[in-house]
Amino acid sequence: MSFFKYLFLGLIVFTPFTYGAVGKISALKGESYLERDQHRIVLKNALPIEERDTLMTEIKAQVQMLFFDNTVITIGSNTVFKVEEYLFDETNAKAKFALKSGIFKAITGKIGKKAPENFSIRTKTAVIGIRGTTIRGKITENADVIMCDQGIINVTSLITNQTYIIPAGKMIILSHDGTSVEILNVTPEELKKMGIEEEFLFSSSSSVSERLQIEDLQSLNAQFQSQSVENTSTATESASDALDRNLQTQHDDTLNALIPLNDQIGGPTAGP
Questions:
Q1: pTM, two decimal places
Q2: What is the domain partition of the chain in residue ranges?
Q3: Which residue of 14, 60, 103, 122 pairs with 76 in a disulfide if CB–CB is 3.0 to 4.6 A?
């Protein structure tokens, strides 16, 4: 086999393992999946989450994510949520997420305390900044609805560039056409009117018993590295006789290997 064929095969096999784990799925209900490097992976408990992953839920599904800094994010039915950037170490900390559609609830972790200016969630019409916060939000048909349950948030409109300070117990409604902004008290009546009375199955409060530690992330990344090496060796040997015919099949096998990783990782998951 030529050098270039080995190189091409290696690039294909290692594609799903470009980024290290930044967290994991801590609880889920219903059918959900993530997209990574244009490939779809079915979600299971303890599946590692990587930077640039996009998570998608089906109807009546819910997914809870636990990140390295102990930020907890829960997304509800028919939601598309992306981990745009994430870094947490002794010298740097940042977390940037994007709600493309649907509903979410977030409890900020250590990044919210250490570097709140570097934590943000982008919706269709706004960017949410935090100050040690519990946040809820939903993208409806005509507006983005963003609520502050604890702490304070600043919401900046992507249309007008105006920033609004929203304290606990308040909600802001930004129309998608930029023609109206409302700030209201969070009440059961308002939640029902906006269609966000949905109660999440999972607890996403600061009392969640499970917390990720440094050794947890090291273990997750070690699992990825081990699985990558095994898949590369197997793929190279099986492709030696007919690489051109088998490249796509081996690529699919490598992607499918991500899902059984969940069974190897194990460990407790966050519950109700």
A1: 0.70
A2: 27-206
A3: 103
